[in-house]
Amino acid sequence: MTVPDVLGGPAAANLGAPLARANPVAKLAVAVAVSAALVLTVDVVTAGVALALEAVALPWCGLGPWALLRRGWIVIVGAVPAGITTAMWAVDSGAVLAGLGPMTVTEGSLLAGAAITLRVLAIGLPGVVLLATTDPTDLADALAQNLRLPHRFVLAALAAMRLFGVLAEEWRALTMARRARGVGDGGLGGRLRTLAGQVFALLVLAVRRATVLATAMEARGFGVAARRTWARPSRFGPADAVVALGGVALAALATAAGIAAGTWNLVLT
Length: 269
Hints:
- This protein is mainly alpha-helical.
- It has helices at residues 24-39, 44-57, 65-89, 107-133, 136-145, 151-181, 187-219, 238-261, and strands at residues 96-100, 103-106.
- The protein is flat, with a radius of gyration of 22 Å.
- The chain has 2 domains: 24-142 and 235-261, no CATH class; 149-219, no CATH class.
- A two-stranded antiparallel ribbon has the order 1-2.
- Helix 6 (151-181) packs across helix 7.
- Strand 1 (96-100) and strand 2 (103-106) form a beta hairpin.
- The chain starts with 23 loop residues before the first helix and ends in an 8-residue tail after the last helix.
- The chain has 8 helices and 2 strands.
């Protein structure tokens, strides 16, 4: 079974792994629990413990190191610059480790940068696992049947997820068509103009495709207000409850570790 991977190409996850075959709502509960715990605080211990526990659970998620890197590179791209920027511009405290004009890196700012990096990685990892091991249709079935979300919202989100791969193919087709016609300027400015034109063309194609898709879905009765039935039942069993509770326990352990180390601080105050 192949699962479309929003973060970069077809998935090669082992869908027979215990956590991979859990109900999508259970995996979503893990992601929400971890995110809720880490949003409340910015400290190295809480984020580090959460990330370490997630790493321990990875063998049961059906994703190997290379598969995880291939799908989670975008999280790393967001986490590392955020940590570096925080280390350079955060409030200085402790000894000065490096300085360049108005930018200084102190022990306190470096610790804050590390905390931000670990925090982004720990929040993003459960989402990467969810997307890489879950078929979009299964996720939509679970959201509508288990969480009772409005079917219009669920079906619209499912259609959008299905179109990610189509947009990627259209982007490649636009690039090849422009190269075949010799369209494109040299230099940085020319490349930026070419990129802007290609982005605009992709936007036009996306709007047209969305209009046609919306009309087709309405014609097939996807927008009816009456209660609808589902072709594939989504069941939330005891094993799924264990997975969800495991996510809550992970978040609780990370928070407890931060409190015990004295680094936990409520960012809302």
